Amino acid sequence: MNYLSTRGHPDRKRFCEILLEGLAPDGGLYLPEQYPQVDTATLAKWRKLSYAELAFEILSLYIDDIPPADLKAICAKTYTAEVFGTDEIVPLRELEDGVYLEALSNGPTLAFKDMAMQLLGNLFEYELARRGAELNILGATSGDTGSAAEYAMRGKKGVRVFMTSPDGRMSPFQQAQMFSLQDANIHNIAITGVFDDCQDIVKAVSNDLAFKRKYRIGTVNSINWARLLAQVVYYFAGYFQATSGNDKPVSFTVPSGNFGNVCAGHVARMMGLPIQTLVVATNENDVLDEFFRTGVYRVRGAVDTHETSSPSMDISKASNFERFVFDLVGRDPARLRKLFVDDLGLNGSFDLSADPAFAQAAARFGFRSGRSTHADRLATIRDTDKRFATLVDPHTADGLKAAREQLSPGVPMVVLETALPIKFAATLVEALGEEPARPKKFEGIEALPKRVVKLPADAEAVKAYIAEHCD
Ligand SMILES: *Cc1c(COP(=O)(O)O)cnc(C)c1O
To answer: Is the dihedral of CA 180, 182, 187, 189 positive or negative?
Structure first.
């Protein structure tokens, strides 16, 4: 399997070459040259597999530069009941007639990002050992990504993590999750500033090419193809749990921010998994809902990007969206460049409303969308608690609301549960008047010793810290 760039760079790369990379050299995103096709007989075989075995089968179609026995061992080591809490790894339960919740957030940090990041940690360790290389991961987080990366990379050989976060702005639970890690290779850096300051620092450090090379700086952001690929697996696992045979379609609703999660659903559908509809659920930051309703993709500025009660979906632009649009415009890199380089660069938006391609987003690719507000989230959390004695987190609540607007008789609707309620306790308290129960292993974490340094919002200070803490 070879990988190409959405923007038309002539080079073709293999999986392990793009594993440790971010963007392609021309600024595009990597995609496989074609989507491997899965037929009904294969689905029937896969239905009986454990999650780790299923992951191995799917990853094998995309990875041909890791020996199969090694890849199998990596999958077996990643997807265990010890790490993810159950043998099913992503257990499905029926909430009401035809509406299901697929639990993706029983990993170490209680959000779905663990599903991919845990695999990435093991792939990184394997590939770095093979190359005799080291990597220093520099990131910016307002919560879920940073903690998932740290729990995936802690104690891994060849990897260090330098994670910046805005000082005092994460929830106490999120801070405790990250700062209580005592592993020598994990560095928490609290920046005096806001999340944008952290992102600017990461950009400034990455743009210093000499520094980047000398200190082998890498990232683990959501455009990484390996992360997306890992997420394809739970669409298959959800499908198998929601059906008893392989001829019936299923729909999925996905609480969305950077379009990574739902893009994995798109890939699963392109492979031939019988998915009828992919519902993109957004909050007040509705860049994606607007596109699927109108055909206009309009990136938001800082003032139009809202801080909401489903904060992991607070985005101004959706960094993985270019992958889907590439397929939508028939994989034509010249058209893609016109939209993402010329139009977005010039106007901050592009308009496909009059283009026949836009109609295909729904007709051929199955996309629908929905949007919710803070009031909707509270109402959904209350309603789900009252009618089904089930607590959902604010992101999953956004999903449930959008899902109910897109139900189709006889087609199971699977809503992806992207975080556990305890991570966003303040909103649960606002909705229900009480704190959600906390998993045992997180009892009292706020009182644990914290390992964090405070630095000013200054890229030079962060560079000096990194230099001092590499070997
Ligand atoms: C990251 C995240 C999302 C958004 O996922 P994308 O892949 O960026 O679309 C939704 N919910 C939670 C809880 C998250 O952490």
So the answer is: positive
pLDDT at position 17 over 80: yes
In the chain, domain spans: 3-85+111-224+448-470, 92-109+231-432
Beta bridge partners of 164: 140, 189
CA of 384 to the centre of ligand 1 (A): 21
CATH number of 92-109+231-432: 3.40.50.1100
Distance 237 CA to ligand 1 centre (A): 19
Q: Tens digit of pLDDT for each residue in 190-227?
A: 999 888 889 889 989 988 989 999 999 988 888 999 99
**Length of the chain, please?**
471
User: Taking the chain, what is the end-to-end CA distance rounded to the nearest angstrom?
Assistant: 36
Looking at ligand 1, which residue's alpha carbon is closest to its atom 1? 312
Domain 3-85+111-224+448-470 carries which CATH code?
3.40.50.1100
- Regarding pTM above 0.85, the answer is yes
Q: How far is CA 39 from CA 46, 241, 274, 312, in A?
A: 11, 18, 10, 35
